[in-house]
Amino acid sequence: MELQANPQLLWFIGIYALIMVGLGIYMSKKVSNSKDFILAGKSLGPFVLMGTLLATWTGSGSISGGETSVSYSFGIIPSLMLMVPTLIGILTLYIIAPKIRAFGKYTISGILEEKYGTFARNLSSIIVLLAYVGIVSYQMTGFGFILNLTTGMSVELGTIIAAVLIIFLAMIGGLRSVSQTDAISGFLMVGGLLITVPTIIVIAGGWDTIIANVPDSHLTATGGLTTVQLIGYLLPSLFLLLGDQNMYQRLASSKGDASSRKAQIGWLLIMLIISPAISFIAFASRSIFPDIDPGMALMATTLALPLGVGGILLAAASAFIITTGNSYLLSAATNMTYDIYGKYINKNASDQKQLGMTKLFIIILGVFAYLLISFFPTVLEVQMYAYTVYGAGITPAILAVFFWKRVNATGGISSMLTGVITTLIWEIVLSKPFDLNSVVISVPAAVIVLIVVTLVTTKKKSS
Question: Single GO molecular-function term (predicted)?
Answer without folding.
Answer: transmembrane transporter activity
